[in-house]
Structures are given as structure tokens and as C-alpha cells.
Amino acid sequence: MKYLQRSLERKFLHMSSFFKAVLVTGARQVGKTTMLKHLAKEQNRTYVSMDHTMARTLAKSDPVLFFQTYKPPIIIDEIQKAPELFEQIKIICDESEERGLFWLTGSQQYQMMKNIRETLAGRIGILELYSLSKNEVEGIVFPNEMDFSLSCLRERQSLTKKNDIIQVFEHIWRGGMPDVVEADAEQRQEYFNSYIETYLMRDIAEEGGITDTVRFHKFMKACAALTAEQVNYKTLADSAEISQPTAKEWLRLLQGLGVVYLLQPYANNELRRLVKTPKLYFCDTGLCAYLSMWLTRDTLMNGAASGHYFENYVVIELLKNFAYAPSGVNLTYYRDSNAKEIDVFVEENGIIHPLEIKKSANPDRREVKKYELLDKVKLERGNGGIVCMCEEVIPIDAKNCFIPCNLI
């Protein structure tokens, strides 16, 4: 299988030239190790995995000897399994002026992140890798940063094929796990089955101490059924026959393992009566479709949940786009107690870009009228629009466009 270029590569190398250590977090099997090994091809860099029992035992019992055996510059895989190394990494960083000494991968579990931030503050850059985006699979690299302006969108459009609902839903149904990209339906089914049994169930047992795999399975299915909706702990708890505090804890665990993403609601003192509940999305739509038993692309595309899956896809593609881009943004959604909702706020430098997400190829342009509520409370509104299945960029008014979803 040929290597697919990852959009995070640019940012990773940029951080590696600045920090002495760089950690790439993300779910299992999204391609963290593959990317680092690919980038290290021309370098003389040691590789060691903490999944390897003997290496892990050495790391835990004698970190000094470990680094005499495996000398930096080094790639250390699954670093969360040997937190004993952090102190020694700090010492080596402080003794050397060299940048990019340590390339680390790990899952984003709470305890490790707390450990690493405390021990390696100022010495480490932390980046997150997600499963492949549709554009990564198709080998499309956009040269410009997304600002939702007409000129930016048109420049991007010149580099892509026409938006096509069959292709979009093929990607949604298949997901972006590198091993699934070229799999057929039967192979995909088996892949996700073993992904859950081999990785997820092992990780939740190790990290969350959860041994009731039957209930956890039900819990994940309940999460998949709620995709693109506000989190409802009561529904999740009832579905898995657990208590609400347990449902909260399990969802936090899935978030830490990079399986789900919680889009927080927009908060602002000027705007009264805003909701406080996040919305639930799966970081990989293929896993979500598998858990909900959508067995083919077409049944998913024509099914009752297709709008939710389309929204999930767009939100996660936005998340990937901005996670890999030079400038950071804050992603939230807007909903008030009158049930007025705007699907996504992209907030950058105090400017809010409002976006609606519609599966239609010809959505109602009046949707953008609700963006005016931002002007009433004196929030600075940037370019926005409706992300949809239209084939090309079409201006709606001075600030908004119909945005084909494949331009994100």
C-alpha cells in the first residue's frame, strides 16, 4: 500500500525544528507511527515501541539504561505506557541544544497529558493526528488557509474535482483509517470488528479499568446513534444499563482515546440563555457507521440518519483542517433556549465565521439570515455560509457563500 501524504507533516516538521520533543497523539491506527517513520526515512533515528514487552520493562525499571540502549534522536511509540521516561527525557532535553531529539506518539489519556505537561513544559510540542481526510485520500493539498472568503474558496475549487454525493458518502461510510482505504465491504466489516475487540476493548480495560465489555459495546452503539446531537447522558446510560455518572466517565474515556469529539457550545456573557451541553461527533465516520450497522454506502446515504452523518463528516473535516493549519481557531456551535441554532462557529482572532451544514445540493439561502444575531450583540462576524453538496461555490451575499463540502 502506497504512503499517503498527511497534512500534519508540515506542522510536525516545523514544531520539530523548534521543540526538543514533539508528541503526536490520536486514536489507534490513524497512522501516527507510519507518518513519523516516513519523515525519519532520511535520518538516522532509533525506533522503539512501548508495546514491546522487553523495551517497556527496561523503560519502567531503568530509564537511564533505556536511553543508553536506545539513543536519541529517537521515535518512541505508545509513550503513555512508560511514563517513567518523562523525567529522563526532561534531563536529556536540558543537557542538549539539539531540536527534535524526541519524536513521541501516544493516546491522549488524561493522566499522561497531565504528566507530560508538568514534566516537559516548554520542551515539548503536542499535535493531534486524526484519521485520513477525504482530501488526503485523494492527494489534494490546498496551498491557502481557509478563511471562507469567495477568493479563497474559488482558489481551492480550481484544485479539486466537482463535489459528488456518492464520493462523499463513500468516504463517510468507509471512514479514514489508513487500513480501510482500499478494503472491500467484507474486509471493512472485519477490520472494524477487530479494531473494537483488539484495540478499544484493551485500551478501555487498561486506561479506564473497565471490564464489562458487553455494556461498553452497548454504550458505543448508543453514542453512534446520537451522532451530531447534543449529548444526553440519560439516554446513553439507559441504553447501556449504567448510571449517568458512569456514562459521563465512559464518554470522557472515548474522548481521551480519540474516538469521539465533543463540540462545545459557544459561551458569551453578552448572549443570555445559551445551552451548556456539547454535541457528540465521531472522529471517524466509518467506525460510527459500523457501530450503527449501516452495511453499505447506499443504505447510509438514503437512510434517515444521512443528514446527521453528513454533519459529523463536515465538522470533523473542519477540525482536521484547522488542527493542521498554521493558525489556531476555536470551534463551537451556537444554540439558545429559543432553539435557535447555528451548526458551527469558527472563531479566529475574535472574528466569528458562522456556518450551517446541509446535505442538500440546493439549500435555502435564507438560512444565513440567522447570522444577524451576531450583529445585534456586537460580535464581529467574518465570512461564512452554508456547507453543502453544491457542485461549485456560489455567493449568497457579501459575506456568505454556498460552500461545497469538498473544499474544507
Please provide a brief summary of the model.
The protein has helices at 8-16, 32-39, 53-61, 63-69, 85-95, 110-119, 134-138, 150-157, 165-174, 185-208, 213-225, 233-240, 244-256, 285-291, 297-302, 306-324, 372-376; strands at residues 21-25, 46-49, 74-77, 102-106, 124-128, 229-230, 260-263, 279-282, 330-335, 341-348, 351-357, 384-388, 394-395, 400-404.
Keyword list:
408 residues, alpha/beta, Rossmann fold, 2 domains, 6-stranded mixed β-sheet, 5-stranded parallel β-sheet, 14 strands, 42% helix, 16% strand
Tell me roughly what share of residues is in helical segments.
40-55%
Biggest sheet, in brief? 6 strands, mixed
Shape: globular
Instruction: Strand order, main sheet: write it out.
Output: 9-10-11-12-14-13
Mean pLDDT: 94
- Strand segment count: 14
User: Helix/strand/pairing class, anyone?
Assistant: alpha/beta
Distance linking N and C termini: 26 Å
Work out the helix count.
17
Unreliable runs: none
Quickly count the domains: 2
Strand content: 15-25%
> What integer value in Å does the Rg equal?
22 Å
Break the fold down into its secondary structure elements and pairings.
Blueprint: H1 8-16, E1 21-25, H2 32-39, E2 46-49, H3 53-61, H4 63-69, E3 74-77, H5 85-95, E4 102-106, H6 110-119, E5 124-128, H7 134-138, H8 150-157, H9 165-174, H10 185-208, H11 213-225, E6 229-230, H12 233-240, H13 244-256, E7 260-263, E8 279-282, H14 285-291, H15 297-302, H16 306-324, E9 330-335, E10 341-348, E11 351-357, H17 372-376, E12 384-388, E13 394-395, E14 400-404
Parallel strand pairs: 1-4, 1-5, 2-3, 3-4, 11-12, 12-14
Antiparallel strand pairs: 6-8, 7-8, 9-10, 10-11, 13-14
